[in-house]
Amino acid sequence: MEPNAPLASIDPSAGLATLGSQTTVPPEVHTWSAGMLWANVLPDMLIAAACLVIPLVLLRLASRRTDLRFNSLLVWTCIFILACGAIHAVEIWNLWHTHYWLEGGVKIAAAVAAVPVAVLLWRALPQLLSLPSQEQLRDTNDSLARANRELESFTASVSHDLRSPLTSIAGQAGLLELSLEPCSDDQRKRLQRIQAGVKQMSELIEALLLLSRISRHTLRRESVDLSALALEIAGDLQQQAPARQVEFSVPSGLWVHGDRRLIGNLLSNLIGNAWKFTGKLPAAHIELSLVNTGPMAEFRVRDNGAGFDMEHAHRLFKPFQRLHGPSEFEGTGIGLATVARIVERHGGRIWAEATPNAGAAFHFTLPTAPLS
Fold it and tell me: Which of 20, 50, 257, 367 stands the most exposed, by the fewest C-beta atoms within 10 Å?
């Protein structure tokens, strides 16, 4: 056979193919009908579209749920799915063209992306299997609800059982003071210490009950005028101690969205703390201000009072943790823990900045619109 001779030829008149000197019957030739064409094109189009949408959903999940430990798996899965979608898109293109190198390149990319997906998925399998089921979550919620009910019952019992003996102690101390008339200065001081201890214990019980109620309180969200609440609290404090020289700075138009009762309690504690820790100054200044706007606005309550050492700032928002002794400033050590709980229940956060004997500033964030 000559080098340039054709290997095969087709005789159009006879419908036979000749190879050299042999004659063979050609294979059956298929022609594309419109139905067959769209039976291939439409599924490929739908698969390619789905392979474009699925990665967008997975990437949004990875960006919103940064706590998940499967972000690298999600990213590689997105790459693999996009490559698979590209394969189907190229197959549609090649129905009218013959760019098979392009199709091969896309398939190589999909194969390369499939390897890390398989490896990461295998490594994540134990963690995925350890995720709780819906039934386990329901059991956990039921157990938590039972624990909360038991805590409510315990709190009510403690409130009643502790208040009764405290009332009795206070009453007996008062009767003892009357029966000892005239009593010595030492006896009077001892009785006063008893009554002061009873008062402090009663305040501590009230603070603990309030902290417990805040955790169980059902939030009634509404628009709350923070400026009006702050001015009302400032007016009440001025009436309690009209002789004090305190300058309050409260801008108008500070609005948040939350539970009016809890936000009022939050401001009462923060402004009350500023009032208390500026009590030894001849001229005090207390300021409520807006630091940053947005869906979660940042506010600040600042004073020029006693301040504190920032080395102990991590203790501020824990119950019973006080940075000043009772001989310096009175208090229960529950107020800032209550404030932190209220801010957390509204989806915000709280932190403090201070310098000893140069004042303190408490920053907190609250929503300015309904949370989704």
Answer: 20
